[in-house]
Amino acid sequence: MRSKPNILVTGTPGTGKTTTSSALAEATHLRHINIGDLVKDKKLHDGWDDELQCYIINEDLVCDELEDTMEEGGNIVDYHGCDFFPERLFDRVVVLQTENSVLYDRLSKRGYTGAKLTNNIECEIFQELLEEAKESYREEIVVAMKSNTVDDMNRNVTTITEWVSSWGSTT
Ligand code: ADP
Ligand code: MN
């Protein structure tokens, strides 16, 4: 068993993965890995998708890059996808969820419009990330958490921090 757990924080863009993960990293002293930033910084992509306005992630390169760090444990991985990581990498998979109207405002503020905006709202309506997580990981390690308000976020950080503290001490 790893001495410290690996946690995946996933959800539709705008649900609060990065904000939650950095607060969680501060509270737990685990390492926050933002996959979007990693892909950009280490060029783990196959170019830029003009239509979707994002890098075309190379999943194999990402998994290779993460291998040693994940083996060590103690990582919070932040990404809006979850089906391409090896299942054994994670001890907890957190799926953040946000009400449509709240998400709509957050993504508009971020400058999303047109198909990019509606695709993400649909992704949230159909709970695509929760489905993907349940298909990819054992059901007992997948937890959905509401992320509508700052109170929600603080509560989520506290809940996950308590779980991290108890890691290894449970028999
Ligand atoms: P993601 O990484 O999932 O795309 P972010 O963490 O970047 O989402 O959050 C998107 C925006 O929404 C940010 O402006 C952030 O401050 C805000 N936000 C995120 N989670 C919450 C929350 N639970 N309550 C209120 N605002 C939030
Ligand atoms: Mn983010």
From TrEMBL:
Compositional bias (Low complexity): 10-20
Protein origin, superkingdom: Eukaryota
Pfam families named among the record's database cross-references: AAA_18
Enzymatic reactions: AMP + ATP = 2 ADP; ATP + H2O = ADP + phosphate + H(+)
Sequence intervals crossing the membrane: none
GO molecular function: AMP kinase activity; ATP binding; ATP hydrolysis activity
GO CC terms of this entry: cytoplasm; nucleus
Annotated stretches, region: LID: 109-119
Localization terms from the record: Cytoplasm; Nucleus
Record region (Disordered): 1-20
GO biological process: ribosomal small subunit biogenesis; rRNA processing
EC id: 2.7.4.3
Keywords, ordered alphabetically: ATP-binding, Cytoplasm, Kinase, Nucleotide-binding, Nucleus, Ribosome biogenesis, rRNA processing, Transferase
Start and end residues of each stretch annotated as NMPbind: 34-57
Keyword Hydrolase in record: no
Binding site for ATP: 14, 16-19, 110
Keyword Hydrolase: no
Family assignment from sequence similarity: Belongs to the adenylate kinase family. AK6 subfamily.
Subunit structure: Interacts with small ribosomal subunit protein uS11. Not a structural component of 43S pre-ribosomes, but transiently interacts with them by binding to uS11.
Function of the molecule: Broad-specificity nucleoside monophosphate (NMP) kinase that catalyzes the reversible transfer of the terminal phosphate group between nucleoside triphosphates and monophosphates. Has also ATPase activity. Involved in the late cytoplasmic maturation steps of the 40S ribosomal particles, specifically 18S rRNA maturation. While NMP activity is not required for ribosome maturation, ATPase activity is. Associates transiently with small ribosomal subunit protein uS11. ATP hydrolysis breaks the interaction with uS11.
Protein name, as recorded: Adenylate kinase isoenzyme 6 homolog
Native organism: Mikania micrantha
